[in-house]
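Technical annex B. To support the medicinal chemistry partners, we prepared a structural model of the target in complex with adenosine-5'-diphosphate, based solely on the information shown next.
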Amino acid sequence: SATLEIRGVSRRFGKNTAVSAIDLSIPQGQMVGIIGRSGAGKSTLLRMINRLIDPSQGSIFFDGAEVSRLRGSPLRRWQRDCAMIFQQFNLVPRLDVLTNVLLGRLNHRSTFSNLLGMFTRAECAEAVAALERLDIARTALQPAGTLSGGQQQRVAIARALMQQPKVLLADEPIASLDPLNAKVVMDSLQDINLREGITVVTNLHTLDTARTYCNRIIGMAAGKIVFDGPPEALNREA
Ligand code: ADP
Ligand code: ADP
């Protein structure tokens, strides 16, 4: 099974060190919650894993391959194996929901053709099935920007599923949502983790959410890991 290995990873922005010499090993199938105050480096860490940004130092491996060195099509392959969802959903608001979900397949293409007619019937059916699984298939033909925040985050999860990922990163996925929608989104991430065995690594700012959903909690402060263990261990310390 495929482990995500982070070895000696640091990231500086000018003189500011956002992430400082982090080592982490995350086996396939874990559901990991990263907690810490704003500015602790959580988002920078996730962005380095899927190569939205590069480390200043150190290496990241997945399944033995050094993802922090990939270029070209192997990098595109990693970015499809490693899906990401964001606090602000990052959908294309004017495009309909179904097309937004199908965009999860773009990295499966070796060349770009025009978008129209680009997706097969089977892919469209798969996108509808993903929307059904998240209970929002009735919104398929609406512009994504007209949906509620909770619905938009579910669209983003459906788009991530279309990537057929091995790892799913979530950067504060419920920070903009009301409690009911937050629960639906966290339940969905947990279901994906349990049913598909997809590794889920999510930044959260409330400890309660991490305790409820994650089997491993990583605490970050000032770019460093200050806690790493199961929720029970955290309860003992607190
Ligand atoms: P968190 O996700 O825990 O809130 P971040 O990873 O977003 O923390 O930020 C960690 C530190 O790095 C903060 O001091 C932040 O201001 C800084 N930082 C993050 N991204 C950038 C950037 N693109 N340019 C400069 N500084 C950044
Ligand atoms: P987060 O939700 O992780 O706290 P932020 O709101 O801190 O994210 O950052 C949003 C965007 O601004 C990101 O692209 C981040 O890289 C960038 N950013 C954060 N801090 C700084 C900074 N001090 N200087 C420049 N860009 C920053």
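Notes passed to the chemistry partners:
The mean pLDDT is 93.
The beta strands are 4-13, 16-26, 31-35, 57-62, 65-66, 82-86, 167-171, 199-203, 216-221, 224-229.
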